[in-house]
Design goal:
The protein has two domains: 50 residues, no CATH class; 205 residues, 3-Layer(aba) Sandwich (Uracil-DNA Glycosylase, subunit E). 49% of the residues lie in helices and 9% in strands. It is built from eleven helices and six strands. Strands 1-3-2-4-6-5 form a six-stranded mixed sheet, with helices on both faces. Bound molecules: uracil. The site of uracil (URA) has 13 residues, from helix 6.
Length: 267
């Protein structure tokens, strides 16, 4: 038995050499659970953290969903024709409009495409994207259940923070995407998305974890949508402490509970 454990230990040691592998294992086991040392966590059988498994009830009929899909395609086309902020983001290779279920209950908003997203043409497919996928799985959802988009639709040069003028020009396309998908909840990932949608200048560390509402433009006469700000997965990766992971997990749990409640109320 001792020998078997030793073998397993050395296997794990080599696996844990890679920072990404270690973070992934830690996230699986630790997002929201107690402070388990890595070795102990890995040797323990995997126990799914207590999360509400979400059954997403179809909200719209098939024809309404295909209409949402058509409207998103049209918006993408319009964006790519007008592409207003691209004058200041010239180094990108293509635009990254967003993707997912056109009728999603949950809409994640990031900042701007990075290098991988610019190459692939899809949002959140690099390292931060893998972390976002884990965050989504941690609340019992699949990536394809959600809609995922960014404030900016093209990669800023050298991945710099979006300029206010770029946000001002590109932000309205995000707002249109939100109106078309009309989710039950928006999760903003990081400062730029949160500031844009809440029209505030407060930093994400003060806003995260506090329920807010995104109010569409007055003339649209649409009800506001619940919004949960949380850290950007890239920030989480850069500050991979137990505290930041627990904070993100607590935000995600609140979102899962909100969705579970609103689903049970609508059946
Ligand atoms: N970071 C973002 O904000 N969006 C992406 O799509 C990828 C990384």
């Amino acid at each position: 038995m001792g020998a078997t454990l030793d073998k397993l230990d050395s296997k794990l040691d080599s696996k844990l050499d890679s920072k990404a592998a270690r973070q992934s294992i830690e996230t699986d086991l630790l997002l929201g659970t107690a402070d388990l040392p890595i070795r102990q966590a890995v040797l323990k059988p995997f126990v799914q953290p207590e999360v509400v498994r979400l059954e997403i009830a179809p909200r719209e009929t098939r024809s309404e969903v295909s209409e949402q899909s058509r409207m998103l395609d049209e918006l993408r086309h319009r964006h790519d024709l007008e592409c207003p902020h691209c004058t200041s983001a010239r180094t990108h290779t293509q635009t990254v409009f967003g993707e997912g279920n056109p009728n999603a209950d949950i809409f994640f908003v990031g900042e701007a495409p990075g290098e991988t997203e610019d190459r692939v043409g899809r949002p959140f497919v690099g390292r931060a994207g893998q972390k976002l996928d884990e965050m989504i799985r941690s609340i019992g959802l699949r990536r394809e259940d959600c809609y995922i988009a960014n404030v900016l639709k093209s990669r800023p040069p050298e991945n710099r923070i979006p300029l206010p003028i770029e946000i001002q020009r590109c932000g309205p396309y995000l707002e249109q995407q939100l109106l078309i998908v009309n989710p039950k909840v928006i999760v903003t990932l990081g400062g730029p998305a949160t500031k844009l949608l809440l029209k505030v200048e407060t930093g994400i560390t003060k806003l995260r974890g506090i329920w807010a509402e995104w109010a569409p433009q007055a003339q649209s006469q649409r009800a506001s949508i619940a919004l949960m700000p949380t850290y950007h997965p890239a920030y989480l990766l850069r500050n991979y402490t137990l505290q930041t992971r627990q904070e993100v997990w607590s935000d995600l749990k609140a979102v899962a509970q909100f969705l579970a409640q609103s689903t049970s109320q609508s059946v």
